[in-house]
Amino acid sequence: MSVIRPTVRPKNTILFKFSFGMSVLFLVMITATYMVVDLVAKEYLINKNKELIYETGLHIVADISLRISIAETLARNLAAVGETLPKDPQLFRQVIPQMLDMPENQDFIVGGGVWPEPEQFTPGVVLRSFFWGRDSLGKLQYFDQYNDVESTGYHNEDWYVPGRYSKPGECLWSKSYMDPYTLAPMVTCTVAMFQQQKFVGNATVDVSLQQLKSILREGSAKLGGYAYAVDRNNKFLSFPDEQLTKISNRDNNNLTQEYITVKQLAEKLDLFQPIADILTEINKTFIQSVADNNRLLAEDIAEQSKQISLLDAQLIVANMLLLREQKYDRNAKTISMISKQDFLLGEPVNVSVFIMPKTLWKVIVVTPQQVAINSASKVANLILILLTAIMIIAAFFGFIYCRRSLIVPMYKMVKQLQQSVPEGEHTHTALLDDRRQDEFGLLAYHFNQAKIALDRNNRDLTLQINERKQAEQQLKHLALHDPLTGLPNRLLFQDRLQQAIALAKRHGHKFAVFFMDLDNFKIINDTMGHEAGDELLRQVALRLSETGRETDTVARLGGDEFAFIINKIDSIADAVNFALRLNKLLKTPIAVNGNNINIGSSIGVTIYPDDADNCDELLRNADIAMYQAKDDGRNTTRFFTREMKAKLQQNKEILTDLAESLTQDHFELYYQPLFTIDHKTLVGAEALIRWHHPDKGMIPPDKFIAVAEQSGLINELGDWVLAQACRDIKNFVNAGILDIKVAINISPVQFKRKDFLQQMLLILAQHDVSANCIELEITEGAVMDNVDQAIDMMQALHDAGFQLAMDDFGTGYSSLSYLKRFPIQKVKIDRSFISDLENDDDNKSITTAIIQMSHSLGLDVLAEGVETKAQLQYLQGEKCDFVQGYYTGRPMPASQFIETFKRAKDTSLAERAGMVSSITT
Ligand SMILES: Nc1nc2c(ncn2[C@@H]2O[C@@H]3COP(=O)(O)O[C@H]4[C@@H](O)[C@H](n5cnc6c(=O)[nH]c(N)nc65)O[C@@H]4COP(=O)(O)O[C@H]3[C@H]2O)c(=O)[nH]1
């Protein structure tokens, strides 16, 4: 069986599925990663950015606070100097500048000094301050202008007045202002001086805001935005675009610039309003925290300095209280908001406000939102790219690994299987290399085990199948062959016949069908036993099968019937030759159980297409021809002729007429007298049937008995004969013909009837005739089929009162052993032995032998067909008991028989014989 090796379609391969799965997994992972990074990481990064803003803001605040602390410390030190140093101006002028002039702080400590209360330093002198400020070169210069009698002095300055209300060590920070000398923005830290708990003036330190701007710029630069600061009053301390946040003042012909408040900027720029609102709100919160009793303090402060508004004063008080109560958070407070559009950057921004605890300054850090998002996106994209790269690399190595560890071993297995399993072969060995120490090794091991087990099963199965096939073949053989001889049986023969017809039709040739029946097989079978019969049949079959050609068919159709198909004969002569061969073949004796048996055969032959062109007809024709051979004396061959068929047809017609005649009473019984051998005493009469055919006239029994037997009509005919014989016997008796037995011919068909005896007795009873009046003539053929059964039947008949005679003795088996067993009383020698008795020594010998043999068995002997005196004399000489024949009396109608023999009582037998011979049938 050739099997097309299956191939795996590319899309069905594990490699494809794995790759596809990996790709899907890869896409899912990328998408998941993207979502995670976008949603979580981005959020995280934005928060981180906020933290960065916060830290940056704190850093700025811390940076500023450091400087503020330095300034505050310096201011406290100055206050301490003012409180403690002897009031020697020279001393003050030496110490103070030295304290202020610290090189590391000179960039932001731009001035400072001590400012006593009126007459506190020098009695009678109101204005007595010691103040140094840096010139354009950064050098500290002493400024005495505040002490000019014509000047407004310093005691009402906004940076001075709150000091009066502060406590020792407290540092108050002024709002921003423009230094009239340097024209730079600055703020002042004021620490009050006390002596014996009495306020005696302030010490101040001026801090330049110039540096604040750079601190804020540097601090915010890395965030991509900007930062600025406002003082306690929300007045700008710095701003990247100073043009926006400064106003110019003309003071003493000097053009000075000053920062504006957030409120003022918001008035100019709507976009700034939200930030201004927040800052204003913060201050409001501070102001609201000032208790009512302290509001008076604020009013006092506001009253004392025209530069301080009530609002300023309230904030100053709030600041003071926060410092005192230490309510403030040491760290900067933070407020964050988002502005949809920043007026400077022109895009959405995060605004973070840091409130400096000591000064209530606010540092505002503005960062573009996009920067945070961009940086988050950048990081997210980076993560994404990295992860993608990792996944691609992982997928690549996964693919390589999968290929190496799964696909390659798998294909190796497939290759091993392809190479090691030749189609249709069972190797009973392992197919796969199972030395691998992994699952493939395990799989290969179990596959091999399963394969070996499968092979074993296959082998068993193959054996079983072969056995079954053999059994099937045997069955088929049995179905189509004769078990005894091994020859084809009727079924196969018919099949072969069909084939022969088809072949002959196609090629236009002739063939012959032979039908052979062994002669006298039954006798051999019965006398020698069935086993011998079987052996004989086997031997015959063997001989027959060696006769024909290979293309010919010899079959046993049943019993002792054989048939041949002789394929392709060129002429009838071929068939004749074959028939001769067959006859010759069986002429050689066959050895069975040490006996050499001569068996003849009757053969019928028919030719295709001359005689028939179909299976049934051919067989029937051969059968007819065979019967013809049998009829013609057996051990001969007959070719089918149309006449045979016509005869058959005739027989059919006879049969039809017979049936009709039975109803029409067209039959009659003739009686032939039977005498003692001395021809003196009438001992019986043989009833011989006659058919008066309405059209054909008288038909002798030879013409219709056989047909009646073949059809089974003989039973009815036999019943009629007995019934008629009974009627005639009564007439015989009535006519005074007593003490004779009427002999009736019993056909083998009748004899084999199971109810034969009952039927006979019934008819006798119906006619009130005793069985003693009847002699039944039975032929050897009737009893030889089943001798034992026949003997039983004969015994029963004899017991019932019938006399039994063996008819036609000598023509059939003529076996002494049988005669001995048969419960018969008489043997009738067939007339064929009598007819030429005078001239034929053989017949003489046979006749003598039969007479002697029968006598030795205690049987009477009757000779049939005695036609001459010589024959009678011979028989008399041989002590034959009875005689029947034309010489002693021909068959005659019953009426004539009565007529003849009623008178015969008085006449001699010799006279009667002469009278009888004149009456012919
Ligand atoms: N040539 C010649 N023939 C003689 C002579 N003497 C007698 N025959 C004839 O020989 C036959 C004797 O009868 P079968 O051998 O039983 O032979 C009988 C018998 O076997 C059968 N048969 C006749 N009647 C019946 C019947 O009622 N039932 C049955 N089953 N068979 C019958 O038909 C056969 C022929 O009967 P038939 O034609 O009546 O022929 C008779 C008879 O006419 C003779 O000297 N010379």
From TrEMBL:
Protein name: GGDEF domain-containing protein
SUPFAM superfamilies given in the database record: EAL domain-like, Nucleotide cyclase
InterPro entries: Biofilm_reg_signaling, EAL_dom, EAL_sf, GGDEF_dom, Nucleotide_cyclase, Rev_trsase/Diguanyl_cyclase
Residues in GGDEF domain copies: 509-642
Domain named EAL: residues: 651-905
TM regions (residue ranges): 20-41, 379-401
Pfam families in the cross-refs: EAL (PF00563), GGDEF (PF00990), MCP-like_PDC_1 (PF22673)
Keywords in alphabetical order: Membrane, Transmembrane, Transmembrane helix
Organism: Colwellia marinimaniae
